[in-house]
Amino acid sequence: MQNGDAMSPQDSKAAGAEAMEEKKAQNQGCTEPTAPPLPPPSPPPTGPPEYPRPRLIFHTQLAHGSPTGRIHGFTNVKELYAKIAEVFNISPSEILFCTLNSHKVDMQKLLGGQIGLEDFIFAHVRGETKEVEVTKTEDALGLTITDNGAGYAFIKRIKEGSTIDRLKTICIGDHIEAINDQSIVGCRHYEVAKMLKEQSRGTPFTLRLVGPKKAFDMIGMRTRATKSNEGKIVNGRETLRLRSKGAATVQEVQNEFEEQATKKVDDLLESYMGIRDVELATTIVEAGKDKKSPDDFAEALDTVLGDFAFPDVFLFDVWGAIADVKNGRM
Fold first, then answer.
1. What is the dihedral of CA 105, 108, 109, 111, to 10 degrees?
2. What is d(CA 277, CA 148) in angstroms, rounded to the nearest whole number?
3. Is the dihedral of CA 124, 114, 278, 222 positive or negative?
4. What is the C-alpha to C-alpha distance for residues 143 and 158, in angstroms, rounded to an integer?
5. Which residues of 70-90 are buried (b: 16+ CB within 10 A; e: fewer)?
6. Contact 97, 108 (CB under 8 A)
7. CB contact at 8 A, 87 and 73
8. What is residue 72's three-state secondary structure?
């Protein structure tokens, strides 16, 4: 075809087909575009799982006198002390123990592993430090020891007529800070009771004690306080159960069997080990209430409280006490 000649429709169609074939040939060997690769999945979180904190509002005061504070968001005793300390601008280490609904040093009102949803919390803080020389005149000193769950052991009961009872400077509520200048801060109550039991008869030893700061006379006894529970209505029969491991839980108060069995086990703890610990007694009852034999009970108890290494005679008596309450033999 010469320049200037018109292209026929057939020629135009053929030329277009040739152009398409040529473009297709040029594109051969080129890869099709693809989407960018997806980012790798995020690694799983490390560390212990975070437990939800109950949104329960509690009212609190310092037992020796203070304004009323509000605390929430704790799941164990150490966190509770930290919350109280934050409200009153003190160190958590200043708090010796807490009582419920009374500013007095009343061991029947001692805060243990459970707080009623309507309870008012009083924090007893460090007061006077004193050193007392003690000489054992018999095997038992006449002391019952407990601890606050945060590293402080203190005196819960003094037996009338005992060696300690004759030393009027030693009082219920005193924190035992050291034995013969050896600090026992951080020791559990059963460890302290063992140290005291091992002191030789006739050989003097020294106790360094810290008494709770004295309360003002004008502070009245508080029995109940209105609670905020994020809109939830409570029935007055629920408690916040604090646990050394895991989340705090809201649960019903103990039924009659659990309450009576816990009291009997707590009495046995004092008899065998010189300690009172309602939380420990509650845990023992929970481990044994559904078991069918002493062996099953011992195995269950070893799983949750193996560090205590309870003697067999104690386990046998506890099993018998739980069985007596269960069968109505009290």
1. 100
2. 10
3. positive
4. 5
5. ebeebbbbbbbbbbbbebbeb
6. no
7. no
8. coil
Q: Residue 252: what are its φ and ψ, rounded to 5°? A: -70, 150
* Angle CA 167–170–172, to nearest 5: 130
The model's pTM is: 0.64
**One-letter amino acid of 262:** T
Phi-psi sector, 304: left (phi>0), alpha (psi -120 to 50), beta: alpha
Q: 166 to each of 140, 144, 169, 172, how far by Cα in Å?
A: 13, 15, 9, 13
CA–CA dist 66, 69 (Å, integer): 9
pLDDT in tens, the chain (330 residues): 444 444 555 555 555 555 555 555 555 544 555 555 656 666 665 655 555 555 688 999 999 999 999 999 888 889 999 999 999 999 999 999 999 999 999 988 998 777 888 889 999 999 999 999 999 988 889 999 998 888 999 999 999 999 999 999 999 999 999 999 999 999 988 899 999 999 999 999 999 999 999 865 434 433 333 333 333 333 445 766 676 656 666 656 567 777 888 888 888 888 887 777 777 888 888 888 888 888 888 888 777 777 777 778 888 888 888 888 877 776
Residue type for 34, please?
Answer: T
Using alpha carbons only, give the angle 56, 61, 62 rounded to the nearest 5 degrees: 135
CB-based contact 99:112 (threshold 8 Å): no
The answer to whether the beta carbons of residues 204 and 133 sit under 8 Å apart is yes
Q: Is residue 216 exposed (0-12), middle (13-18) or buried (19+ Cβ within 10 Å)?
A: exposed
Q: Which residue has the tokens 């035992």?
A: 176
The dihedral of CA 221, 226, 232, 237: what is its sign? positive
Long-range contacts from 167-170, C-beta under 8 angstroms, 24+ separation: 167/132, 167/134, 169/130, 169/132, 170/132, 170/207, 170/209
Beta-bridge partners for 317: none
- Euclidean distance between CA atoms 105 and 40, whole angstroms: 59
